[in-house]
Amino acid sequence: MSEVNAQTTWARRDPTSTGPVIAPPVAPFPLIPPRGIPRGRSRARRLARAEFRSLHDTIRVETSRCHEFVDITDEVRAIVSASGVRSGMANVQSMHTTAAVLVNEAEPLLFEDIGWALEVFAPRRRGYRHDRFDIRTVNMTPDERPNGHAHCKASLLRTSEVINIVQGRMNLGRWQRIFLLELDRPKERRVSVMVIGCA
């Protein structure tokens, strides 16, 4: 951006003029904290000097059945700890179209309720055009099996969850846990975890 354009960006148009008013090249806020800030207000400077870090890792999970909740909280916590990030975020992402990532309570009867609700929405024994191998021509594999119900259930849920990191720890609530939810048959699943933030 040229100097004139940079100045024009912050200028207000004069209603009596045909062009923008060229304002002096002054930023709308100070980019660098001025010297002489009291010690009690030096947090901005400390953050400015903080080291940016990132770490990516993959969690591998072997599921055993449809609607299985696999608790991966401890695995994600270990990745966050290894990253050295003190303030930032952890993105936990399913690498599949028939498995979801969600944050919820680790309570067996709740798992049954969620499975029941998903089954009401997309029953396994319902006819799905995705399962019509006689007419389907896209994304077919040698071991393809009917799983239209799993894709429909996944459309209701999330592919990923973002967890805040505060003082080096995941900022989860008292009952919150991170789960991979299997929506298809037993499979080997991968969960991508990306941690970014400041040390």
How does this structure look, described?
This protein has helices at 3-9, 43-49, 73-83, 108-121, 148-154; strands at 52-62, 69-71, 87-94, 99-105, 160-166, 169-170, 176-182, 188-198. It is elongated and about 65 Å long. The strands form two sheets. It has a five-stranded antiparallel beta sheet with strand order 1-8-3-5-6, with helices on one face. Helix content is 23%, strand content 28%. By secondary structure, the protein is an alpha+beta fold. The longest helix has 14 residues, at 108-121. A hairpin with a 2-residue loop joins β5 (160-166) and β6. Mean pLDDT is 85; it is low at 1-14 and 20-31.
Topology:
Elements lengths: L2 H7 L33 H7 L2 E11 L6 E3 L1 H11 L3 E8 L4 E7 L2 H14 L26 H7 L5 E7 L2 E2 L5 E7 L5 E11 L1
Strand order of the largest sheet: 1-8-3-5-6
**Could you estimate the helical fraction of the residues in percent?**
10-25%
Q: Over all CA atoms, what is the radius of gyration?
A: 25 Å
User: What summary fits the major beta sheet?
Assistant: 5 strands, antiparallel
Q: Count of helices?
A: 5
Question: Mean pLDDT, rounded to whole units?
Answer: 85
Structure described in brief:
With 199 residues, the protein is of the alpha+beta class. It has helices at residues 3-9, 43-49, 73-83, 108-121, 148-154, and strands at residues 52-62, 69-71, 87-94, 99-105, 160-166, 169-170, 176-182, 188-198. Residues 1-14 and 20-31 have low confidence and may be disordered.
